[in-house]
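Many introductory courses stop at the sequence. We go one step further.
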Amino acid sequence: MSESKPKPVRPKLQRSERVFSESHLTSWELFVRDSLLTLAWPELLNSVSGSTASDLISRRGVFSRRYYGSVEQLQQPEVDGHEHCRRFRIENGDSPGEKDEMFGSPSTPVLENPEYQTRWYFKYFLGKLHQNYIGVDNDKSPFFLSIVMNEDNNSLVPLYRAILFRKCGAHKISLPIPQNKVLTVKQILSNFPNMDKVEKGPKEIFTPDIQKDLLLLEEQEGSVNFKFGVIYMKQGQNSDDEMLSNEHGSNKFEQFLTLLGDRVRLKGWDKYRGGLDTKGDMTGKYSVYTVYEGHEIMFHVSTLLPYSRDNRQQVERKRHIGNDIVNIVFIDMEEDDQNETAHAQFNPTCIKSQFTHIFAAVSVSSNGHYRLSVFSDEAVPLFGPGLPCPPMFSDPYAFREFLLVKLINGEKATFETPTFARKRQRTLEMLIKDLHSEHVTDARITMLNRRAFSDVLAETPRHSRLKEDSRQIEFVRIGQALKLEAIVRGDAPTSLASTGAAGTVFKRSPWEANCFYPVFPSHPIACGDSWGENRLVVATEDGTFVVEDGTSHRQIFDKSLQVRQLNVVEPHGIILLRAGSAHKDCKIYVFRLSQIEMTTEIFTRIDVKEHRMERTRGAHLYSISRAGGARLRMCVAIGRKLLMFQWKHSAAWTAWCPASDTDTVEGFSFFWELNLSEQPSILTILDNVWSPISPTHGDILVCVGYKNHWDVVNGRSGQAQHLYTVEGTRTHLVAALDLYEDQEIQLMLCYNHTCHFQKLNETINCEAMNFDFHWNSAPTDIVCAFPYIIAFTSNTMEIRLVVNGNLIHTMSMPKLQLITSKNDIFFATTAPEFFPNKTDRLYVDIRQQGLQKVSPPSSPNASPEVKPLRIYRIPIHALSRAPHPDHSRTCSPPVWKSADSKLAVPDQPRVSRSASSSPVPPVRARLQPAAIK
C-alpha cells in the first residue's frame, strides 16, 4: 500500500476564545534449521545487522522500552583472528517500566500465536467440505485461497472464513454473511490487503489432494515441537569450551532439570526426539523431556550429551547445543550475594554460536528462589512475557511456566528475524510456484466467472449431481485422514494434544471476565459508561438505566430521550449525553451525578431542556479528552463543523474544592470553531502536547477521521496536517487511539482488518507499514490495555499484544457489544443458557450418503427471539497487573443478590467466572414478561 499525495484540509478558524492551562506530560522449523546450518557465520552476522527489530522498538516506543530491556553492544571473543560484536536486548527486570508503580509488570505468561488460534486450515477447513482456489495477483505472483462457510462454535453465527496463501505467509480473515446475499470469490478476495484489484478471477481446484498441499503450506509457519539447549556453567567460567567441559552438574542443577521435565531413556524413545539418537545411544543415554500445553519439548542438556576427555571443544555437545535457537544457561553460584552479580557478568557472546539467538540465564539461591535474565539478539522482535521486577520467582512451578512460555515465544519470534524470514519466504515462494505449476495444468480445474462461492450444489443433471456428491464425500474423507495423520505424528495444534495440558486447563487467563449483571433486558444497548467501582450507565431504545453490580437496574431517562452517546466524568461529578430522536436533532446535555443518584424519578425529554448545551443542535459525534489531563475538553462535530469546549475548572481545583464544582451546562466555556472539508466520523483529542512555539501553553490537537483518511487539526492555528490515507475501494475507519510517550504522540489507526502505528510529523513509507498488524475479524471497537489490545466484533473478542501484534486468544460470543473501557472493560453478550442448541442448526443431507455439512439459514440476519443479555467485566488490573490509580479494585463477588423482584432468579446462585458459561440456572434465569416494559 503506497501513500497517495496528501490533500490537506485547511479549516478556517472562525472564532477563538482560548482558555489555556498547564500541560500535563504523561514443519518449517526443521527446514530453516537444517538450511541455516550451511550458512557461513559472517553472512548471517551481516544479515542480522540490517534488522528492523530496533525500528519496531522505536515505533512501539513507550511500551517496548519500558518493559523489554535495553539493546547493548557486547564484545565477542576473537573468531579466526577477528573480533566481532553482537548487539543484544537485555531483560533483567531493571527497565524503567518494571519499576514504574503506575504500570507494574506485565508478567502474565501467555503463549503468543498459539497453534490452535493460528493454524486455521487444520482447525476449520481440514476434514470439512470447503473450496480452494488458485490465482495470480497483480504482481504476477501465484496464490492459493481457501474458503469455508460454517458457524461459530459458540454463537452459531454463520460466517465465511478465508485463508490467502502467498509467498509472504498466510493471511486469515473471517467475514459475516450479508443478509440475503452470497459473496462471490472476488468479493471475498477484495477484503485482503492489496487484493481488491486482481484482474482475473481465481480458478477452483476440485481435486481432494489439494488439501495435503495446503496443509504443507500452513505448516511452514512454524513447528509445534521445540528443542532447547541447557548449559551448565560454574562460577568463574567465561567460555563455551569451559562450560561444555563440565562432565557433571551440581545438586542445584539436577533439581533444576527435574523442574524442567522428566528424565527419559533415549533408546527406544518413540515421541519427539529433538534430533537426538534413539537407536544406539550415540547422543547419550538420557535426556530431559516435557510437554507444555501440547508442545513437546526436548532439552539438549550439556551434562547428558556425550563427553570426550580428549576433545577440549566438546564438538558432540556443541553440535546440538550450538545449533539450538534458544539456550538456557544455568549459572551455579556458591554465594547468594553473588547471584545478581553473576547475571550482570554473564556475556552471551562467550558462546561462539551465531545460530543461537536467545540466552536465558538462570540461577537459584540457597532458599530456592530462581532468578532469570534474558538476552535476545537485536534482530529478534519483541516477545513476552515481560520479566517481573525483581526477576525473582519464589514458586518453582510458576517459574517453570514463565520460563517455558518465554522460551517458546522467543523461538517463534526468532523465526521473524530477517535471515529466517527470508528463508521462509523463499521456501514458500518455491512451494507455491511448484504447486501452481502442478495444478494449473489439471484438467479438473474450471474457471469461475459468474458462479458464486457457495454454488457448489448448483442445479445439474442427475448423473452430474451424483458425481459431485461422490467427489465431496471423497474430499472430506481424505481431509479427515490427513487430520488424523497429523495428530498421530504430533503436528496437530496444541489444544488437540492429549498430554501435558491437564495441569493448565483450569488456569485463569488475564482476560477472563467476571459476571457483572446476570440478566439485563435485551434491548439493544446504544452506549454506556462505568460509574465508580460498581455501577454502569447503559442507554437502550427503551430508556437509560443505572445498573448496580449484581444488584438491580433502575431507569433514569425514559425512551422519549434517545441517548446515543454518553460519558460519566467522575472527577467533575457530571454525566454528558448526546441525545435526540434523530441525528439531526441530537444535542449535548450535562447532568450532575448527584442529581441522578439522589432522585428516584425518571426524566423525560421535557425535563431536560435546562440541561441542554447551546450551539450543539445537530451534533452527530463528540469526544472528550482523556482522563488524568489538566482540563476536561469536549470536541463536538456538527456536520462539517467542529466546536471545542472546555470545563472552566481544572481537575486539580475540583479535587481541592469538590463542593464548589456544581455547574452543569454553564461549566463549559466555548473555545473555538472550525470548518472542515467533509463530515468527520472519528474524533480523538490529543491535548497533552507541549509546543516550543508557545512555551506557556499546549496546543490542542484533534485527530479527525473522515471517509478514508485521518488528519490532525490544530485548533490554535486553524491548520490541518494530513496523517494517513487508506487506499482501496473498501474502507471502514474504526478508531484512532492515542498512545503517549513523554511529549511525543503516536496514534494507533485502526481500519478494516488493520492496525497501523503512526507518529505525528512522520513520513509514511513502506518500512513504517511493515509494523502494521491485521485482525482476523474486522473490529467494531478497539480497546488498548497494555500489554494487550482487544478487538470487539458483533460475535468475537480477539486479543493481541500491542508490542508485536501477536495473536493471544479469540473468544466467540453472540450479540457481543463493548459498553465501556474507561476503567475496567465492560461488555454485553447473550446469556449462555440462551445460546441456540445443536438442534437449531440447519443440515443439508448429501444424497443419502450419510455425509452432512453445515449450511447457513437462508436469512442469517433475521431477528431471533429476544433473549436477555448478560453484562461482564474484565478487571483492567488483571490485564495490566497495574493498581488502579483511584482505589483498590476487587473482582466481582462470587454471589449476587437480586433486589428487583422482576428478575426471576435465585437469591444467591453461583456466579461463573467465565463469559462462556452461565452463572444462573437456565430455566429460572429467564425474564418474566413484567420485566420488559
